[in-house]
């Protein structure tokens, strides 16, 4: 809490404002403390899960035998066991990124082998007889193979033994080409950035300023409210893995789109709620979602503006919560769709 108050002061709002808002702030802190651990880490993921749960790829009979019925392909027959290309291995059924090519090694077993998985992407389930440990896609539960330990094949001493049939592959070169950008402003950029950085399919989320009148604005200038910039977050994402609509829905659920020029204790035009669209498709999606929220009774004030130059914020604003070990104090996930 003290940290929060200090933050308010540090962010240039002055002691008077901080004291005036103290009772309100207690309320926000209370909510943050109560909900943060359970909701912040889980809810955004469930959004993705739902989205992909409805869009599973169609499987061939062979893929179904392995992924659904937990079969095993014959060794030395799969299309990825010798693949040395740089890129990311995805779940064949739901496209979740599972393994990086940098963790792949030649085990001689005839199946693609990885000594590490992307964090949180693969779930381990001990077999009923206790002899082996099955691995499944954490998002869709599709069978991948088994994981073995203490074989001394690599320094990490782990081998995820995966069926090629359970995998898709996204070459790094292609991933770079398909990356798209999205820009959202919803109050203090620290909290917005925090949530998007945790979403699968997001390569990066950066804090910055946009929608204002001056070039190369500094934090101090934006804090005066006179430059017209909003604190915003620029997101680079792979639309094959996460749709713009999923991003925009998350945006509307991690800030309060009914507050004018304010989020919690942060007050000023720089804290306005805005979607900065980069193409007509994004504009349509944003307007559609605002319409849905209005139909549910939310008095949404979010503006939909054409993306202007995004000015990256000073280094100390990037990954603020991750680096300082705090949770966002006024960006609490709340389901609205
Ligand atoms: Zn999956």
Question: Which key features would you list for this structure?
Answer:
337 residues; Metal Binding Protein, Guanine Nucleotide Exchange Factor, Chain A; Peptide Methionine Sulfoxide Reductase, Chain A; 9 helices; alpha+beta; binds zinc ion; six-stranded antiparallel sheet
Give structural notes.
The protein folds into 2 domains: 36-53 and 179-324, Peptide Methionine Sulfoxide Reductase, Chain A (2-Layer Sandwich); 61-171, Peptide methionine sulfoxide reductase (Metal Binding Protein, Guanine Nucleotide Exchange Factor, Chain A, Beta Complex). The strands form 4 sheets. Strands 3-4-8-7-6-5 form a 6-stranded antiparallel β-sheet, with no helix packed on it. A 6-stranded mixed β-sheet has the order 16-15-10-12-11-17, covered by helices on one side. A 3-stranded antiparallel β-sheet has the order 2-1-9. The protein is 33% helix and 23% strand. With 337 residues, it is of the alpha+beta class. The protein starts with a helix and ends in a 13-residue tail after the last helix. The protein has 9 helices and 17 strands. α1 (2-20) crosses α2. Bound molecules: zinc ion. Zinc ion binds next to loops. Zinc ion (ZN) is lined by residues 91, 93-94, 96, 137, 139-140, 142.
Q: What is the strand tally?
A: 17
> According to CATH, what is the class of the largest domain?
Alpha Beta
Number of helices: 9
Q: Looking at this structure, what is the CATH superfamily of the largest domain?
A: Peptide methionine sulphoxide reductase MsrA
Average of pLDDT: 83
User: What percentage of residues falls in helices of 4 or more residues?
Assistant: 25-40%
Radius of gyration: 23 Å
């Amino acid at each position: 809490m003290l940290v929060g108050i200090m933050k308010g002061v540090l962010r240039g709002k002055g002691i008077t404002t901080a004291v005036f808002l103290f009772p309100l702030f207690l309320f926000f802190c209370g909510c943050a403390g109560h909900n943060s651990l359970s909701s912040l880490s889980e809810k955004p993921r469930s959004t993705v899960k739902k989205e992909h749960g409805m869009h599973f790829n169609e499987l061939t009979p062979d893929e179904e035998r392995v992924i659904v019925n937990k079969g095993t392909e014959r060794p030395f027959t799969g299309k990825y066991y010798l693949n040395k290309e740089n890129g990311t291995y995805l779940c064949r059924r739901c496209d979740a990124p599972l393994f990086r090519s940098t963790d792949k090694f030649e085990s001689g077993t005839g199946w693609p082998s990885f000594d590490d998985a992307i964090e949180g992407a693969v779930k381990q389930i001990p077999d009923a007889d206790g002899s082996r440990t099955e691995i499944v896609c954490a998002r869709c539960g599709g069978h991948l193979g088994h994981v073995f330990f203490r074989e001394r094949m690599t320094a990490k001493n782990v081998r995820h033994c995966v069926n090629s049939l359970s995998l898709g592959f996204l070459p790094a070169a292609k991933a770079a080409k398909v990356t798209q950008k999205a820009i959202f402003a919803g109050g203090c950029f620290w909290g917005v950035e925090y949530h998007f950085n945790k979403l699968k399919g997001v390569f990066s989320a950066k804090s910055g300023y946009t929608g204002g009148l001056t070039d190369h604005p500094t934090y101090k200038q934006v804090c005066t409210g006179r430059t017209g910039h909003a604190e915003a977050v620029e997101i680079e994402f792979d639309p094959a893995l996460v749709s713009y609509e999923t991003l925009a829905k998350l945006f509307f659920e991690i800030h309060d789109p009914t507050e004018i020029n304010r989020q919690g204790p942060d007050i000023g035009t720089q804290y306005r709620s805005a979607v900065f669209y980069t193409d007509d498709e994004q504009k349509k999606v944003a307007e559609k979602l605002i319409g849905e929220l209005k139909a549910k009774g939310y008095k949404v004030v979010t503006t939909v503006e054409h993306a202007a130059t995004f000015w990256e914020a000073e280094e100390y604003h990037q990954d603020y919560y991750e680096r300082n070990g705090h949770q966002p104090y006024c960006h609490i996930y709340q389901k609205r769709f």
